[in-house]
Amino acid sequence: MLRGALRRATTAVHRPSTFFQPAISTAIRTVATTRSAQFSLNTGATIPALGFGTFQDADAQEDAVARCLQAGFRMIDTAQVYQVEEAVGRGIQKSGVPREDVFLATKLWCNTFHPDDVAASLDNSLRTLDTPYVDLLLMHYPVVFQRGAEPFPRDANGRMILGTTTFVDTWRAMSSLLQTGKVRAIGVSNFSQGEIQTLIDETDVVPAVHQMEVHPYLQQRAFNTWLRGHGIHVVQFSPLGNMNPFYRKTGWSKDIAHTTPPLTENALLLDIGRKHGKTPVQVALAWGMNSGRSVIPKSVVDWQIEQNLAAAEIALDAEDMERISTLDQRLRFNDPSADYEYRLYSDLEGIEGTKDGKTH
């Protein structure tokens, strides 16, 4: 029965014969330099080039979401584990922007990955967000935690307890949701290339999106090319690298999070910024969008929200892009592998220096 549901779901998310391939080209740079820039998904839908991230700052998210939408953002990214979905829903309503004009994405958390829990988990998010549907539903990580109410289930020794099913089982359950009208597209986050290949090989639905850490210090060029070749759109989280203090405070904080100068101090980005009359932050965001990817910076500060929005207007030239390519140091700041009892990113760059320690 589930396999049949997957076949029917391919009318919404399928293996297209001709993929949208956002290579770094003049056409892409042109389309990615307006505040309303959009990219195509393999579902036929579009996704904004610039989005608004809602990780952290729970008490400020309602007003921040409302203000960012009023300023011109049209994509909101959230997640169950952020514990801000209710505030995000209120912020969308407060903004006055029609729901159909907002691209809303959320992520299932690892303790709800059992296939029998997926539909109910989505329904919980829809109730909390106060919306009848989401434009994109993501699997937050490929690791399955023990099912139940505890988001971080641990044994008596504090070690994470894993579930008995796999991310493939979760994906099949997510795929069946495409027929309900509650989900417009589905995707993954924090997956390795091999894990995505497994989904392609063992199921009938190709992810529409992979949300992953990408910034000038972790460019993952080969993986980005591979994803583009499979029609999978990339959304960059942490597009500013280690500027978020979370990476220095979490229990598994890597040494590089403390020793790597922030992008705001990078001489090359400062120089390109002066050329365009913009900041290094804006240049880093523009680099992602000019590369054909969406970016989801986060801030609850008005002037930062406006500056992030203005980054979509920057048209970097070929020389700028080539210079930024030299900044790649394969520095991955987000890596809770040891805490999650699961080797994340196993075939990707930047997995050196993983530290043990609790996320929460």
UniProtKB/TrEMBL annotation:
Taxonomy, superkingdom: Eukaryota
Annotated coiled-coil segments of the chain: none
Keywords from the UniProt entry: NADP, Oxidoreductase
Chain ranges of the NADP-dependent oxidoreductase domain: 55-327
Record's signal peptide: none
InterPro entries: AKR (IPR020471), Aldo/ket_reductase_CS (IPR018170), NAD(P)_OxRdtase_dom_sf (IPR036812), NADP_OxRdtase_dom (IPR023210)
Pfam families: Aldo_ket_red
Similarity remark: Belongs to the aldo/keto reductase family.
Protein name, UniProt field: NADP-dependent oxidoreductase domain-containing protein
Source organism of this protein record: Sporothrix curviconia
